[in-house]
Amino acid sequence: MIEERSLDQGYNGVKYLLTVIAVSLRTAYGYEVKNTKNPTSHLKVLAGSSSILAAVFCTYWDFVHDWGLLNKTSKNRWLRDKLLIPQKKVYFIAMVSRI
Question: pTM for the complete prediction?
C-alpha cells in the first residue's frame, strides 16, 4: 500500500476494517444478549451503526470503484473500461442482487 502510494488501496483496507469491526461488535452483542439478563443498549447501538456504516461503505466501494457504476467516461456505458466478463448484463445483475 505505501509502496504504490495509492489512496485507493488505503480506502479498500478501510472497507475490510469496517467489516471486521461490525462483525466483532455484532458478535459481542450476541454474546452479551445470550449470557446476561439485562444487555446494555450501548453495544446494540454500536453494533447496529457499525453494521450500517460498513454496509453503505462496502456497497459504495463495490459499485463505484470495483464495477465502475455510473462512470460516464468509460468505453463500456456505465461500467469500468476493463471488464473480465464480456456480457455487461452480468455486472448489472450482480449489482441488483448485491442490494
Answer: 0.74
